[in-house]
Amino acid sequence: MGINNLTVGGWIVVILYFVTAISCLRAAFRNRSTNERWTWTVLAFLLLSLAIERLVDFESVLVQVVRIRALQERWYAQRELVQVDFIIFITIVCFGAVGTLLIWTRRAPTSVRVALSATALLCAFVLIRAASLHYIDHIPFKGILEIAGNVTVLLASQNRSVS
Fold this sequence. Notes:
The chain has 6 helices and no strands. It has helices at residues 8-29, 34-56, 58-72, 79-104, 110-131, 142-162.
């Protein structure tokens, strides 16, 4: 757990989160619309939070706390059922959130809508990764999902910074 355990790929993801957060802040400062400035600022804060989470590996601490709690409350043997239920719940909430965001922002520029959707999916991925413990480790190239989400938000914020 901690900074020393990051792989080269992990460092790339952390740096990409920071770069994307900065790009979102640039988009916020260059925008005249108060709503859009607020949106880009919130996205920057979320991405910065994900970078810090990945850097300090808060996810492992949370998993360990839940594991201890499961053992104390004697439901550790049924943890897979809890994990599956949680993953299904997060998936439903994520798709609902993306749908709601797209409806709320139907008049917003496409880059804002894409960035919001990609960030929601990134957050869902991080939550699912935490809930599934080591099962997601078997997914090949799982870091690509985080990189793709970051690059999508980065490109959308760059597009908005230029517009």
